[in-house]
Specification:
elongated; 7-stranded mixed β-sheet; 12 strands; Metallo-beta-lactamase, Chain A; alpha/beta; 5-stranded mixed β-sheet
């Protein structure tokens, strides 16, 4: 279980009651280097074009060539084998039955779900990256018409293809999602025709889908979608099995809710989890692993603040000693040092356990650090 406790006076915390001068000196060095780089940068930017011309080397072409080579080469060794999903066929999507008429579709980066009911098809989300292939995938397994579409939340990258659906389809969403779609007028997305505040049960033919809202996490209106008989649970943009979350806790609007969502997911009786991203499904064990990662980020961020041991007054001293009045630059460097310390601690255990840990852990440490510092 997460113990969501505010870090005790992080702005005035010291190590063992005394100032820890090693992080203090480290921060001074970081600030000095930043200021030096800032000045040197102006010269470099102005001189780079002349340097390229004099040397006679077309660096732009070389950079483009390198980018092309990198784009054309896959690096499966960069992520654990357990994080890789099924191969995507030439038709551009993969569709598979999970259990008893519950299916999922992916093109490798996004996921969605649909259910055959004997009286029509229930679709959950409509990512633009899958687009019209949604209908091709459904047609592979049934000739039932689509009767319902559920919005997991309002973000266009998950529901942008809803505009392709027949106008007769009933669209179900949380009332906050309705408000956000209406306010944003996102690419003529159809507004939900059925809304709810906390619970909604959809029963069509031989399928039952339970929708629930427990408050904000990734964003307002982001709902839990549960198929109890087949034990399938879908929650989008929070947990990606086999992977760390996307950058900055996937831009969570409410960090407390995001952290608590892991325990909430595990309170459900499910066998299969759909997270909305990457090309694979998840198991209960993998959700537990995701929770362990986030718990470690939380704990390591608190340890980093304690280890650095600098107060706000210390930061003002640093600013004077390096000769800058730009206090934002000093605070930014301080927060970066804390995030880097948290990252180093976290990657010792997680670098090779979850895909993307090497990419986004520092971002997660930074966000969680602000959560501890401010909330």
């Amino acid at each position: 279980m997460f113990e969501l406790k505010t870090l005790r006076d992080p702005a005035t915390a010291t190590l063992h009651g005394k100032h820890n001068h090693q992080p203090y000196q480290k921060l001074k060095v970081v600030i000095t280097k930043i200021l030096a780089a800032f000045v040197i940068g102006f010269y470099f930017i102005g001189a780079q074009a002349d340097e390229d011309y004099v040397s006679g080397i077309n660096t732009t072409k070389n950079r483009e060539s390198l980018v092309t080579k990198l784009k054309n080469k896959l690096y499966p060794e960069d992520i654990p084998l357990s994080a890789q999903g099924p191969a995507i066929p030439a038709k551009g999507y993969f569709v598979e039955e999970i259990k008893d008429g519950v299916y999922w579709i992916t093109e490798g980066g996004y996921q969605m779900m649909f259910l055959t009911t004997g009286q029509g098809v229930i679709v959950v989300d409509a990512p633009p990256t899958i687009g019209s292939n949604i209908f091709a995938a459904i047609a592979e397994v049934t000739n039932e018409p689509i009767t319902h579409l559920i919005y997991s939340h309002s973000h266009r990258d998950h529901i942008g293809s809803a505009r392709l659906f027949p106008s007769t389809v009933q669209i179900i969403a949380h009332e906050d999602t309705y408000a956000q779609v209406k306010r944003a007028a996102i690419e003529s997305l159809p507004l939900p025709t059925i809304t709810f505040s906390d619970r909604y049960i959809l029963s069509v033919g031989n399928k039952v889908v339970e929708l629930a809202y427990y408050g904000p996490h990734h964003e307002l209106g982001n709902i839990y979608i549960y198929v109890p008989r087949q034990k399938v649970l879908m929650l989008v943009d929070v947990i990606m099995p086999g992977w760390v979350p996307f950058k900055n806790l996937d831009w969570a609007q409410e960090v407390t809710g995001f952290l608590q969502a892991h325990d909430r997911v595990l309170s459900y009786d499910f066998d299969t989890f759909i997270g909305g991203h990457v090309g694979r499904l998840g198991t209960r064990k993998e959700i537990e692993t995701a929770r362990d990662y986030i718990s470690d980020v939380l704990a390591n961020s608190a340890k980093a603040f304690k280890a650095i041991g600098l107060s706000v007054s210390d930061l003002y001293v640093v600013a004077r000693e390096v000769g800058t009045k730009n206090v934002w630059r000093v605070f930014d460097a301080y927060l970066d040092v804390v995030a880097q310390d948290c990252t180093e601690r976290t990657l010792r255990q997680w670098r090779y356990r979850l895909a993307g840990a090497d990419v986004f852990t520092e971002d997660h440490c930074w966000v969680v650090g602000q959560y501890l510092r401010l909330d």
